[in-house]
Amino acid sequence: MTVDFSPLLPWAAIAVIALFAIALSALGFWRGVRGTGLRAAALAALCLAIANPVFFQEEREPLSTVVAVVVDRSQSQDNAGRGQMTDNALSTLKERLAKFPQIEARIVEAADDPDTETPSTKLFSALSTALADVPPARVGGAIFITDGQIHDVPAINQPLGFDAPIHGLITGRPDEFDRRIEVVSGPRFGIVGEEQKLTFRVIDDGQAPGGTAEVKISLNGNEIATEMTEPGTDVPFSFTVPRGGNNILEFAVSPVAGEVTEANNRAVHVLDGIRENLRVLLVSGEPHAGERAWRNLLKSDASVDLVHFTILRPPEKQDGTPINELSLIAFPTRELFVEKIKEFDLIIFDRYQHRGVLPILYYDNIAQYVENGGALLIAAGPEHAGDDSIATTPLSAVLPAMPTGAMNEQAFYPRLSDDGKKHPVTRGLEGASSEPPQWGRWFRTVDVQQPLGQTVMNAADGKPLLVLNRVGKGRVAMLLSDQGWLWARGFEGGGPSVSLYRRTAHWLMQEPALEEEALTARAANRALEITRQTILGDPGAATVTTPSGKTEQAPLTQDEPGLYKAELRTTETGLFEIVNGELKTLVHVGSVDAPEFKATISTEETLKPWAEKTKGLVRRVADAGGAIDMPPILPVRGAVRMADDQRLSLRMTDETVLKGINSLSLFAGFLGLAALLFALSATWYREGR
User: Fold this and answer.
1) Strands 415-416 and 454-458, sheet pairing
2) What value, to the nearest 5°, has the Cα angle with vertex 291 and ends 390 and 288?
3) What's the pLDDT tens digit per position in 146-174?
4) 273, 297 in Cβ contact below 8 A?
């Protein structure tokens, strides 16, 4: 309560009146006049009434003590039943805090940021946000419910912004262990056919059983090696890049019974295969108009090393041509088709016929080259329908179409077949979408029997024009006409000869982007983009297995003929497995070195330094049997000076808020009037005696 004055007259006037009253009272006392004391009291009361004293009384309400409860909802909390432990601990903590009306619990759940590529557990950032509008004096403490894997713990000498205990309630069990694998170092690019090296490591966290670990290594879905390793040891591994484009190396370590999670038992490394220079062997059986089209196409590509031979005349031709007018270089058949045949990425026979230039055994070498992974392109003309056709040699074992011996001699527009509209080699060729196609006509094709593989382009009357087929590990393409050069020369507007030939060549060399049956996936932030290429019709839904082991279906919808896509949003990060039919692919969402996957076992060590500094408590929420064992709440008035190893100490605030002010004027109203009347009456009474 406080006293203030609200004078009825200026203070100067009140001073004059007071001086007059003092002088009058002094004179009375000096002369000994009876009743002077009462008159002095009456004058003093009058002066006080004019000064108008007012009493003020504040109405204050105590403020609540704010306690932050930060709940860890990161991905590591999904392991080993920690999520259920967290829910049970939070429910119990809410009940206990509710018994103290003066405590205001602010519960904030901290999950991974869905827009970040590097997921991590940032509980102290969540704490700072939760208490941003709370004065430090009102903060009673902070309670973390977490597995202890926190990645933004501030240095112990940094200020938190309040002076109150930090407590940690740790989920998980004290005897946890986990085995994981990671790629320590590896190249991002590699030359096709050359050896590359990387290093991986198996890591045991916690009380692991030890011993050796078996690691299975797969390349593009095919298992290529098994390694026995010691955990904690860097293991070098060498492999050969098999193809251009993406190559996915998968390392899978065998799980250990009882480990926290198997989600980190696999690691992937993506390497882009680069063809240093494509080595192409082009053999033209005779000079013709289309020969230069092939040569110009291949020579225009700086990444192609072209070896080109043209058979100008057969060996049996004896016409007396002077030796100095013949070719200066003999056709090195043995060197090309025996000694160095494996060095070529692609062999093209352009209107070639068997006329004794190649020994019959060499055709068998070419067939074996294809079956072992080589690429062969046949650009056929009338010679393929004749008696000297290469279809009569051992090469017939790998050819997808056998000639009938006849030629189809009529003008036609090359058209995409039903498979061709879906096949990545021919899908979307410029001009193919209209009828007739917006390109020039051709005028003859080789008539063949029912071909193997896929016929992606048709000639007149639906007869095969371009046939693609797989043989063993290799591939063969047959273009059953020698008039593709008409497109290159611009006849009737020309056509997409460059696109067609280039795509065909790259399909033959097993370019992943041109596979007719393929399943791929890529990650864009927290979204999975799944692509399914097929020529077999609707592939159905893809099955997605998340890092936590959950499975869900991703319906694939047609985006283009033969191309189906799906997009799936996910809150998890890590290695996802996508399966559709017999195809499987892996994709990693988020950074491969994200802190969330570096360690998964629960720990009390991260929060202990702060608990010791602020007189807090760190303990596990479950006992050895898994039952929730929560410590009680201990409210403390004033600063917490001593740590309690059994209870959660919370500093209760003394802060209040002003609700209102009551004022009372001493001489106002009947109370003041009565005081003055009493003083005057007393003087009259004294004079009357």
Assistant:
1) antiparallel
2) 80
3) 998 888 899 998 888 899 999 999 998 88
4) no
